[in-house]
């Protein structure tokens, strides 16, 4: 708190900073791709099973079994309180490939993204290769995400299950800019498949963590997206502090072919209940929105964003990890690099700010911290917050 400032002034300033950092964007977990229900017992001899790569949907027995096996492999390093923000899950025959970010269930502890190759043996999933590898003198270290080396080590590994490295995007099914071919959306009925892999993560204290964006969607003709088609947040119930019915974020005016035809006012923010999309190329991502102290609950939100290859507007910063754009160095540091607020407060366009430079950061959604940069971190003037 700054001297002479009223509590209302502090709350207004904190709320404004939160909205600038969030930039109308996002806090949440979701998985991309096409989800297809798969039987837990699969046979490599079955041509249908052996010939297609599938993604077990959230809540399925097979998905839980795969992630439980990965959790057991990591729990000695992270502790038992472990959940995954899944970026990629591919299953074919008796093999599975996972790319996920481990974290504690409340989101307070986040760990390095891991990759894992699993095989189903005698009815249970077993981790065969875990990456990234940090032992450079181990001759098997370089193979943890190399499809060719993994295929040589495991002759029954299905081809194309493990994505190829990003330095060869055309072979991985992506374009030269790293963007994958779009999914076609021709009618409102197609949204059920688009959102089949949506997962609502636990709400987190500021700054929120944004979900990974989906692959591109090619909208053919005029297609209406009603918020009622978005899966409900199963952790929320009517009357709780979390709204179970999702809403749509208001699209920016600069996003071509997308407009809101039914605005919805909730608390201090305007959302949308129905979007009209017309002959456009877009992506989507999801998050839980909250802005205390005026609104103590959270709202599940799906946001339509520009396509993968869309250039960032002047002054915005591009995230190389998922080709998203962020309005400032600090927002990019928080949302793309996933650094804590005390680190991002001491970053600018030139890099790490010098020691003793003044800095401010958000302690929570309604409280600001201020101090000086020391070795790349903002040290609060108030020792209670150090």
What key phrases describe this protein's structure?
alpha+beta, single chain, globular, 5-stranded mixed beta sheet, 19 strands, Nuclear Transport Factor 2, Chain: A, disordered N terminus, 386 residues, 3 domains, 7 helices, 4-stranded antiparallel beta sheet
Sum this structure up briefly.
This protein has 386 residues and is an alpha+beta fold. It is built from 7 helices and 19 strands.
Describe this structure in words.
This protein is an alpha+beta fold and 386 residues long. It has 3 domains: 18-29 and 181-334, no CATH class; 47-153, Roll (Nuclear Transport Factor 2, Chain: A); 339-385, no CATH class. The chain is 16% helix and 31% strand. It has 7 helices and 19 strands. The protein has helices at residues 7-22, 47-50, 61-78, 147-153, 191-194, 329-335, 341-344; strands at 83-92, 95-103, 114-121, 124-131, 183-185, 217-219, 222-226, 247-248, 258-266, 269-278, 281-291, 295-306, 317-319, 324-326, 347-348, 351-352, 358-364, 367-374, 377-380. The strands form 6 sheets. Strands 5-6-11-12-8 form a 5-stranded mixed sheet. The longest helix is centred in the first third of the chain and has 18 residues, at 61-78. The radius of gyration is 22 Å and the shape is globular. The relative contact order is 0.13.
């Amino acid at each position: 708190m700054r001297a002479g400032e009223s509590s209302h002034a502090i709350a207004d300033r904190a709320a404004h900073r939160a909205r600038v950092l969030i930039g109308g964007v996002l806090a949440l977990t979701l998985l991309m791709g096409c989800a297809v229900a798969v039987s837990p017992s699969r046979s490599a001899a079955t041509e249908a099973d052996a010939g297609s790569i599938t993604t077990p949907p959230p809540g399925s027995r097979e998905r839980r079994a795969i992630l439980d096996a990965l959790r057991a492999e990591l729990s000695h390093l992270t502790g038992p309180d472990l959940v995954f923000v899944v970026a990629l899950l591919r299953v074919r025959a008796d093999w599975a490939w996972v790319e996920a970010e481990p974290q504690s269930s409340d989101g307070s502890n986040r760990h390095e993204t891991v990759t894992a190759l699993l095989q189903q043996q005698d009815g249970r999933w077993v981790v065969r290769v875990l990456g990234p590898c940090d032992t450079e003198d181990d001759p098997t270290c370089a193979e943890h995400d190399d499809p060719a080396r993994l295929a040589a080590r495991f002759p029954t590994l299905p081809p194309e299950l493990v994505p190829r490295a990003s330095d060869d995007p055309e072979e991985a099914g992506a374009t030269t800019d790293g963007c994958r071919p779009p999914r076609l959306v021709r009618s409102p009925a197609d949204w059920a498949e688009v959102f089949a892999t949506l997962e609502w993560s636990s709400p987190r204290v500021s700054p929120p963590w944004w979900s990974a964006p989906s692959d591109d969607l090619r909208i053919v003709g005029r297609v209406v997206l009603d918020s009622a088609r978005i899966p409900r947040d199963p952790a929320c119930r009517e009357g709780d502090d979390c709204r179970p019915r999702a809403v749509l974020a208001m699209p920016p005016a600069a996003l071509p072919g997308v407009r809101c035809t039914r605005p919805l006012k909730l608390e201090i923010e305007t959302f949308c209940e129905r979007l009209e999309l017309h002959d456009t190329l877009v992506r989507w991502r999801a998050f839980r929105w909250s802005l205390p102290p005026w609104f103590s609950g959270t709202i599940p939100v799906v946001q339509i964003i520009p396509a993968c290859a869309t250039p960032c507007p002047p002054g915005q910063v591009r995230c190389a990890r998922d080709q998203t754009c962020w309005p400032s160095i600090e927002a990019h540091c928080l949302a793309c690099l996933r650094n804590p607020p005390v680190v991002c407060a001491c970053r600018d366009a030139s890099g790490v700010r010098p020691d003793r430079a003044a800095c401010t950061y958000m302690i929570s959604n309604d409280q600001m911290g201020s101090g000086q940069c020391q070795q790349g971190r903002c040290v609060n003037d108030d020792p209670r917050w150090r």
